[in-house]
Amino acid sequence: MTTKTDGRNKTNQAAKPSNLIRKILDEKKDDRIIEIALQDLSGGENSTFQTLVNPGCYVANSHVHGITTNMVCRPDVPRMEELIPILLHRCSYEIPPNWLFMDTLSLARELMKSGGTNLPSGISVKALREHYRIPLVGSAHRAMTDVRTLAMILQMLTFDLKLSLPNLITRSSTASEYLNNKRKKS
């Protein structure tokens, strides 16, 4: 999830998308992105984007997400490298340093530790969706369905944790901070 905010004391260096994507892909060398969806939580015209992504290889687990190799390994389906300039065209091809990212998994774990709810031990999008009685609209494990579900889960988690907007911003991180934290934990 992404949000923009001013007045945040974060690093002034923007992460170049090519480097950012390379770092993400290096973490899971055999995994490939096959669909991407984005939602601007402030809404408005053109506040969502969704597309299949050509991974250039066989797509496993089609029974889970419904996306087959034949659907994505075609010349008319963009590769991730081709999508970056399109996705970030308003950002001078860089992720702005004031864009913030929130990991709903860490919030769900925090809620479990606080004992403030009877969340299931296996925290997944499905488990959180069922816990909060959020209806599944669309196919599970499809990008836009998951994005919309996670937006609702984020609202519920912030309510249960009694987080104000300033508290939520404090718990968020820039893209480079998020990647650095993931590396430290590995």
**Annotation field: number of helices:** 9
- The secondary structure category is mainly alpha
Tell me the number of structural domains: 1
Query: Strand percentage, roughly?
Result: 5-15%
Please describe what this structure looks like:
By secondary structure, the chain is mostly helical. The chain has one domain (2-185): 2-Layer Sandwich (Nucleotidyltransferase, domain 5). The chain has 9 helices and 4 strands. It has helices at residues 17-27, 62-65, 69-72, 80-87, 104-114, 125-131, 143-160, 165-171, 175-185; strands spanning 2-4, 35-39, 48-52, 99-101. The strands form 2 sheets. Strands 1-4 form a two-stranded antiparallel sheet. It has a two-stranded antiparallel sheet with strand order 2-3. The model is unreliable at 1-17 (pLDDT under 50).
Q: Which key phrases capture this entry?
A:
186 residues, Nucleotidyltransferase, domain 5, two-stranded antiparallel sheet, disordered N terminus, metal-binding, 3'-5'-DNA exonuclease activity, magnesium, DNA polymerase III polC-type, putative isoform 2, Ribonucl_H
Task: Show the helix and strand layout.
Layout: E1 2-4, H1 17-27, E2 35-39, E3 48-52, H2 62-65, H3 69-72, H4 80-87, E4 99-101, H5 104-114, H6 125-131, H7 143-160, H8 165-171, H9 175-185
Antiparallel strand pairs: 1-4, 2-3
Helix pairs in contact: 5-7
In short:
The chain has 186 residues and is mainly alpha-helical. Helix content is 44%, strand content 9%. A hairpin with an 8-residue loop joins strand 2 and strand 3 (48-52).
